[in-house]
Write a structure and sequence with these properties.
The protein has 474 residues and is an alpha+beta fold. 29% of the residues lie in helices and 25% in strands. It has a seven-stranded antiparallel β-sheet. The protein has a six-stranded antiparallel β-sheet with strand order 5-6-7-8-12-13, covered by helices on one side. The protein has a four-stranded parallel β-sheet with strand order 17-20-21-22, with helices on both faces. It starts with 8 loop residues before the first strand and ends in a 24-residue tail after the last helix. 56% of the residues are buried.
Length: 474
């Protein structure tokens, strides 16, 4: 039931002091988070306690046509979500936000991350009579919060009580009839921040770029374990879960997931990638004529490599901007097909040249092999492949699509063998001991590179998360 390698989801929420058309700013916020999930999206709006929502499989611009947006009501609270399925498939039933009607009221929940104890919790809940309609662990969170709401005096205290039960990665945007609640797990695996608008509205988002996209002012990151409650009374911070666990922000947020114009926990994503490129130039040098990056997340590292090595930087690969990320495309055949139409080589840059090619990762090797072939066909004389991350050697249980060591090329082949398999003249990875240099501290999770998990992990690890059906969770 747990993910395999790549990505994430994005959450967005807004609390307005007055009733207004909130679907539009949420739409733009989700657009700026589209890189975090391209399988489905949804928006829920609360209008005087009544929650209306629209969600479907597809990109934000396709799902939310002008007509759909106009049909969503005005309100003073709204939450949105873009999804990539890390747990459960990409069917419409797994689209978020998840809506709940219960004895104490209504709730909408958007979630980024993965619970490491999801299978255990789901089995326990089902044995107690729970009936699930999705294969997503987000429904588990919604179920537990709802149960706690029957015992607790407020929705925020219900979220706090639920955090004593769930484990793993979760950044949440929860909407009740009168409040917007943002919560980040005690490890801080996934990013979450908030800002303000000129009209007094509060905005919650997975990345700071989404706040900027709607003209907001970034205030700060939400602390690991913190719960923020936005209501007509302002902002209340609940910190009982803060500093109960060591900080473990996902290092791959800086290497790949996040947009370069975002800052996570006070650290510029762009700067972190520049540092990765500079370190690669020092640790994995190559004699070459030009440095190029694989769009998009390899470009900043390529620039850093060029600056440190003195080798000229060039644009060698052109991305079709209307094709989604292959890394987060479900299914191997889909990845293979998309990379052929996603990128093209710029012959003028690489023809007859010794090329240093920078990418953010090598997972299965299929995409890397195809990119190297594109550059060979364009006349590249030598290709020295450099990766701004260490080799993937372990599955991730916190929201990244790395599900099986059997699918990871670094688990089966040496660096030299991998270079040969992808057709490169040489290959170099960012050394795992250099990861702290990207962010300036050691409070990050690198379990997918080291196997050192911050939480307990399930013993039964599925080989293919997309093969899981509603009745098959182990």
């Amino acid at each position: 039931m747990f993910g395999s390698i790549h990505e994430e989801c994005g959450v967005f929420g807004i609390f307005s002091p007055v009733r207004s058309a909130l679907a539009e700013p949420v739409y733009y916020g989700l657009y700026s988070l589209q890189h975090r999930g391209q399988e489905s999206c949804g928006i829920a709006v609360c209008d005087d306690g009544v929650i209306a929502a629209h969600k479907d499989v597809g990109l934000v611009g396709d799902v939310f046509t002008p007509q759909v947006l106009s049909e969503l009501p005005q309100g003073n609270i709204a939450v949105g979500h873009v999804r990539y399925s890390t747990t459960g498939g990409s069917e419409r039933r797994n689209c978020q936000p998840i809506l709940v009607n219960h004895r104490k009221g209504r709730m909408a929940l958007a979630h980024n991350g993965n619970l490491s104890n999801a299978s255990e919790l789901r089995d326990k809940l089902e044995l107690e009579g729970a009936i699930f309609h999705t294969t997503s662990d987000t429904e588990i969170i919604a179920y537990i919060i709802t149960r706690q709401r029957l015992k607790q005096p407020s929705i925020e205290q219900s979220v706090s009580a639920a955090m004593d039960i769930i484990d793993g990665a979760y950044s949440l945007a929860v909407m009740s009839p009168t409040k917007l609640i943002a919560a980040r797990d005690p490890y801080g695996f996934r990013p979450l921040c908030y800002g303000t608008l000129d009209d007094g509205s509060f905005v919650v988002a997975s990345e700071s770029c989404a706040i900027s996209a709607i003209g907001g002012k970034f205030v700060r990151d939400i602390e690991p374990g913190e719960i923020l409650v936005f209501s007509k009374d302002g902002v209340v911070s609940m910190t009982e879960h803060c500093r109960t666990k060591p900080r473990r922000t996902c290092i791959f947020e800086y290497i790949y997931f996040a947009r370069p114009d975002s800052c996570i926990d006070g650290i510029s994503v762009h700067s972190a990638r520049l540092r990765a490129g500079r370190i690669l130039a020092e640790r994995c040098p190559a004699e070459a004529d030009v440095v190029i990056g694989v769009p998009d997340s390899g470009l900043d590292a390529a620039l850093g490599y060029s600056q440190a090595s003195g080798i000229p930087y060039g644009i060698g690969l052109i991305k079709n901007k209307y094709i989604g990320r292959t890394f987060i495309s479900p299914g191997q055949s889909s990845r293979s097909n998309k990379v052929m139409i996603k990128l093209s080589a710029l012959k003028e840059t690489v023809d007859g040249k010794r090329v240093v090619l920078i990418d953010d990762s090598i997972v299965r090797g299929t995409t890397s092999e195809r990119i190297v072939a594109l550059l060979r066909e364009a006349g590249a004389k030598e290709i020295h492949f450099r990766v701004s991350a260490p080799p993937f050697t372990h599955p991730c249980f916190y929201g990244t699509d790395i599900d099986s060591c059997e699918n990871l090329i670094a688990c089966k082949h040496t660096v030299e063998e991998t270079a040969k398999l992808i057709g490169a003249d040489s290959l170099g990875y960012l050394p795992v001991e250099e990861l702290s240099a990207l962010v300036g501290h050691s409070g990050y999770c690198s379990a997918c590179f080291t196997g050192e998990y911050p939480t307990s992990v399930p013993e039964d690890k599925p080989k293919d998360k997309f093969a899981m059906k509603l009745s098959e969770r182990k």
